[in-house]
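Now for our specimen.

. . .
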Amino acid sequence: MHRNIQNSNREGVVSTQTSGIVLAGTHPWTGSAFDTLPRTLLPVALQPVIAYGLSWLHEGGIQAVAVCGNRETRLLRSRLPRHVPRGMSVSYHEDRMPRGAGGSARDAATNLPGETFVVIEGTAIPNIDLHELLAKHRSSGASVTVVVHSEARANGHAPIDVPSGIYVFDRRALEEVQLHGFCDIKERLIPELYADGHAIIPFIASTATPRVLDASTYLATNAWMVEHLVTSGGERHGYKRIAQSLIHKDAFIAEDAAIVGPVIVAPGARILSGAIVLGPTSVGRDATIESGSMVARAAIWRRAVITEGATVDGCIVADGTVVAADGVISHGQMIAGRHVDLLTDWETQQTHQPVKRPAFDIGVNLLGRLVFGPTWSRSPVAQ
């Protein structure tokens, strides 16, 4: 996914002039089991989603990064260090009072070097060229660059530009944020900067940026990344490529189990005799897929057990959940709980709710069109 940067001089220029800010604070939207976990730490293709953003910054030559959290900061401090790329210095900034994305970025920037800041949302997986983004930002003289992608619409309507959760800010722009109070980037900071005469430009990405917002977008992002890792030919430490799958050397796969890729299987996982796994699927550490069961297009988390005869299609099976009894479960939901009987309980396990667009979106769209033109949009799937 990310281009390896070979030019060390180019990296040096980026690292000394530019720092990274990862917005890791999230708030529950659905009230479901999906929001009981920090979204930035959800396993996408067996790695926390936030790790992909850190790797993207590192591969682009950025060495100093601040991770901005809120109530999740302590958990991030304990779990994230082993996923930080070698040579990257990561600091953690916690909002004692709610500051919003703009306020958090402004506060974090005060302790970071450089005059330019690449700001990314912790649930986004960047798939653009960072050097190209920074080159356009600097050559334009803009205070802010917003990464967007063009999204086609039906019935002959013109495409719309959808924000990707990736920004470039000059220090002078972030210093416009008040020292106290709440300030969001899209709803407040960008419109205020535009009103004050700051130059704000879009960077048009060729493809959408995968983002984890809810259960359905998590499943789509997990499937996208599993397929990308398997088909791109890249390597992951401890894994071996078998046909269209990446299997960890410490996983057990029965000789008569059927794995139809793309599939990633973590260490300690067991896929027993007669089991069928259809991709794109990820099977987490120490999970078990028992004989005669079938898993398709799913995310199986750590220590989960899919017992004999069960079929799981297009679902998230959370840590430690035991899915029991013959039956079929699907519909893009999250299954959470120690024991789930598919014959009687599966309907009560649905947790996904559609993302609701707040009323102020109408005003935000108008302001966005003022800055970026008539093709601006804030699709809830791509916020």
The first strand starts at residue 18 and ends at 23. The chain has a mean pLDDT of 82. The domain at 8-214+358-372 is CATH 3.90.550.10 (Spore Coat Polysaccharide Biosynthesis Protein SpsA; Chain A).
